[in-house]
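2.7 Reproducibility. Because tokenized structures are sensitive to small changes in the input, we list the exact sequence used for ABC transporter permease, including any N-terminal residues retained from the expression construct. No trimming or masking was applied before prediction.
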Amino acid sequence: MNLSKDGKRTLFAEASKFCLDIAKLVIGGVLLASIMKEDIDKVTLYMLGVLIVLFFTFLGFLFLIISKKIK
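Resulting structure tokens (single pass, no recycling of outputs):
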């Protein structure tokens, strides 16, 4: 795939938005799952939620930095 610089910049910017949106959705999912009265280990739920949110947040900001560096 051969993209122009504008295409690459747009691709990384949209990937950044996508990853940050996924992180927000995971936060909402963890909160909703913890409210429900199911037999879920809350420590495991929170730990996995935090790890996934940190991963997608880091990835989102990494893509944002890359999109800003492309000139």
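Helices lie at 5-35, 42-69.
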